[in-house]
Amino acid sequence: xxxxxxxxVDIEEMVVLKGxxxxxxxxxxxxxxxxxxxxxxxTFSIACALLPLLLTKWRIIKNIPYxxxxxxxxxRYAQEAINNFGVHAVLExxxxxxxxxxxxRLFWILRVANFLVFSVAKHLHELDSFSLFxxxxxxxxxxxxxxxxxxxxxxxxxxxxxxxxxxxxxxxxGVFFQMLLLTGEDDDRNMGTVSAILFFVLAEQSGLTVxxxxxxYIRLCRNFCLLFTAMLYFVHNMVNTVLMSLSASRxxxxxRHARALGVCSILLLLPLSLLYALWSVFTLSxxxxxxxxxxxxxxxxxxxxxxxxx
Length: 310
What we know:
The chain crosses the membrane at residues 15-34, 157-181, 193-211, 223-246, 258-279, 286-309. It is a multi-pass membrane protein. Residues 10-310 form the TRC8-like N-terminal domain. This protein is mainly α. 83% of the residues lie in helices and 0% in strands. The chain is built from twelve helices and no strands. The protein has helices spanning 2-6, 11-31, 38-62, 64-85, 87-97, 100-127, 138-151, 156-181, 191-205, 213-249, 254-281, 286-309. The longest helix has 37 residues, at 213-249.
């Protein structure tokens, strides 16, 4: 009814069109109750679909001038905003207005969830079982984890969605350390933003989306190792600022000193654990040397920070 009112037709014409629209949808189903040949049934269905199709086409043609006007006004608005504020500011504002990170994050979660459901169903069918406990086998769990990661970055849009997930996780890791160090949030140095940009740049440099599944998984794990070391750098910058502030102010609060020194111990243990795990599994390569150099640098910087603090 509202659609016909929007078309601005007379009441009598509206009633006639409304009746025709109803019958155009009902008649194809009703015709199945009567035995006709296949050609007659197909022709009848096409004829009934002509009225909705013609009304839709007519409405589209009628609204073409309005659509062109909207596009022209949008282009003028964008040109004016770019001239006044610059391209970067306009893109940033539209990025926030459209809530792009949340859209990409939701897209990636739904896509991966759909893939997981089908993968789990496939494994259950192969095992001839309906119990999810049969999937607790480490080999099956690793296979699901591996296939999910490789599927989650096989296209550029999926990679952007994974980047949004990386931003979300990294952001709250940074928030955790800020709460641990009792410091305020600095938007200019947000760990989530830096980590997401680094992850996407590494993925594009390595051509992650065009690699085969096995090579993509290996490259993705390597990128995560590099990202992990970058996050350690970020945490070190936070704890370095706090320790220097505590040392200069002679703050008597043992609680704050213990928290900062506890984070320093984490910055020493995590790189050492990473180095031990990588050198135990992988052979010598340029990537391994790069990760090792970054990890050793974090350890040295942390030790220097503690020495300056004492």
